[in-house]
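Title: Prediction job returns without error message
Component: structure pipeline
Severity: low
Priority: P3
Assignee: unassigned

Description:
Job completed but the reporter wants confirmation the result is attached to the right record. Sequence as submitted:
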Amino acid sequence: MVRVGCLFALALALAPARAHAQEGGGPIAIELRAPPLHAGDRAELIARVRGAGAHPLLLTPRSEGTAIEVVRGRLLRAEAVDPSAEPLEFRIPLIAHLAGTAVVRVSVAGYACEARCRLVRAEASQIVNVAPARQGGSAPKQTDAPSETAPDDATGQASTSSLSWVRMPGAEACASSAALARAVEERLARRVFVSAADADLAVEGRAERTPDGWRAVLSVTQADGTVLGERTLESADPECDALGRLVALTVALMIDPLTAPEPVTEDPPETQVIVRTERVEVPVLVPAPATPPPPRWRVEFDAAVLGAIGLLPTAALGGLTTVIVEPPGFIPIALEGALLPFSRAESALGHADFLQVHAGLQLCPLAIREGGLALHGCLGADAGAVIVIGGDVVLDERERLIGQAHAVVRGHWDVIGPLTLRLAVHFLVPFRHEPFTLSGNAFYAPEPVAGMLDLGAGVHF
């Protein structure tokens, strides 16, 4: 009895230590906030991640366009301002190299845990506008119409250019920066683009999706920050290829109007291209959180070897079968049956052999599960019988119906596939304690409390 009580106390003591494992992570969402930037600034973009729970997290920022540079490529949960906070706040260092527009994309990989843990991902993007460098005097003058600048300076050499091309969220099907640069250089039949630090002209542009098709916004800026002009191109074609060809031709004309070829009609008749000058505001698109899978039932069938003390005259071995049902949104329910086939009671008058069988129902208000491990704490009641199956004396009562209160702590381990191992400690309080008698005299009296320990295996669905 002392050993059973110690095992039961140890199992209850372990239960709170695993309670933190039930903290799940719901769908992950990201919120981005960029500070106002000027060329030459060093700043931090704030990324707030919600729904990460207490699980490991990997945050990966990247940038498109030459206006800014992301200094850190990867951040772990420990690098958040407060790794235990909700939401988690990360500070992503940026360097603003040039005036213009860029897109920062941040992807997050984490875990969401319900019955099991699964890998979840989310991504958000933020448009970052970099203003010209801070300097004294009046702001650079901007013209209202685009300027298609001459290619030669006073020395007769061709002016150099840099290209910054950004595809906004939804416009990933449009031409990449490298493809656009190749198309422009093919039209001009020479090497055109250099690094932004060595360029006389900076050509910046972005492609975006519109309700009617596609839009590109282009601007040309001199090395001293003077904005020479801005041009907006639109296409109603279902594909973005037509807009890409128009952008390549327009950029070539902006850089070198003398040597750029005349536009050739190569789009199908149904393609409609509209050109107008305007400034546009582009909203930030944040993907909606992923919908979690619907909860499902779990059913487990177990068989175990059972040892008992206090239910029969001596310690006994037997077998146990359990069916555990875990409905979605409710506590687990256990149906259990046990058979202890033999135990002998002896006195000076002789001996008698006993068999005990019982079955019962339990509810498990303590239910913790993480990955393949689970812990259940259950309460219930059993009904059964104690039967005298032999001996050299004839007792006054050959069989007796019994009932008992039943408390149990079970540990489960999903080993591989549907196979599960289990270990359980049981504490029982029989409702009847009157002795079995021989000719009116007490022969064997049941204990007021009893214990069982079982070890077995099962399958779950």
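Comment from assignee: result matches the submitted record. The domain at 295-460 is CATH 2.40.160.20 (Porin).
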